[in-house]
């Protein structure tokens, strides 16, 4: 059924409700209802449920996945502990008849065991083929399964705001759940909470179709039953604001993951911001481009003489709209590619040839999260500060996880605590925390930790006792 007929049906429904006519009296409404039933029957067999186990046999619950993906501690404020196995922690969909299944990286990241359950209830152990944190996509594989029904992929570049969308997955562990809504926005960028977790390449599809914990990795489909996105995130505390990775991103990423287990991308080596913030000062003719704030040493940009204050306006003749667009364009080239970047420098356009290196997560996302005596921390964001009820003027690092039985756990620290001092020295970034711990947390010694518990305004003090043999 085409979109115009569905729209007509909804108008009929509105009129019918206003006049007290029941849906049963409208053949058109019955037809649209049957169409959505058939849509579920068409897509459902291609959708799978994914359960994971982490290290040491600990179950990775829904809240752990939420915690890991958003960088926001769970409401219980305590360390991760073994839990009974939930019904499902994530979703995915069948990519091909060879057994490849597409899901989110954050669903399977750190998993020691992965269990895939098909629509007919059959269960299979799965192995990770490849994962890409920067797009939050991953591929797992099940073996020796016949007659798998691959999902049909659509074209996310053809999506329009307002068109219908259907999300299918294991919402809150309820497998095969279907929700219906619309595309509410496209091309969403700059979602800081997701960027903190490593989702660099956003350009996300926004939908008001209900997406819950457990939907992650499942398909967002159009009314033709084609996958147009991979459900990946929700806005904490909001109603019906969910995001999906566009399927055209998956079209590029998934084949690389299957063939080589990872994604290789070009790398320029500049720290940038949207040019519109500097357009007047730089004398730009418009607001397009990426303003260079820093050139990393030893990178292609430095070798090619890209300079601070340059505005990168084009790559191989294609206009650069903003900073995110530059990252996408450069990353689309394989390492070793020769490209020409056009920069605006002192009122003049300058073409600069560059040979790209390979993008390395160790360089572009250093020290995202490191375990120190069982403690993992993150820098604060406005979302985290609001979620935990913290004073936004207080500086510190947020504890995101405390390993059970570790020195950090023995010191009564918990996820959600804001550490403001280590050994009576203020810390305001993860780097400062790690440096202070490495300096003061020597074997056999004790270290003062000053912190603020979530929801409190008064600092507390505890002591971490470092084992003699750490």
Number of helices: 13
CATH superfamily placement of the domain at 266-358: PDZ domain
> What would you call the structural class?
alpha+beta
Range of strand content: 25-35%
Identify the CATH architecture of the domain at 266-358.
Roll
Largest sheet: 6 strands, antiparallel, barrel
Give the fraction of residues assigned to helices. 10-25%
Regions with little confidence, pLDDT below 50 for 5+ residues: 55-63, 65-88
Query: What is the count of β-strands?
Result: 27
Keywords:
470 residues, Pdz3 Domain, six-stranded antiparallel beta barrel, 13 helices, 27 strands, alpha+beta
Q: Your description of this structure?
A:
The structure is a single chain. The protein is an alpha+beta fold. Among the domains are: 3-44; 266-358, Pdz3 Domain (Roll); 375-465, Pdz3 Domain (Roll), CATH 2.30.42.10. It has helices at 3-19, 27-43, 62-70, 105-108, 192-196, 247-260, 279-282, 300-303, 323-331, 361-364, 382-388, 407-410, 430-440; strands at residues 47-53, 90-94, 100-103, 113-117, 123-132, 137-141, 152-153, 164-171, 174-188, 204-207, 219-221, 226-234, 242-246, 266-267, 270-274, 290-295, 311-315, 318-319, 338-345, 348-355, 357-358, 375-379, 397-402, 418-422, 425-426, 446-452, 460-465. The chain is 23% helix and 32% strand. Strand 11 (219-221) and strand 12 form a beta hairpin. The termini are far apart.
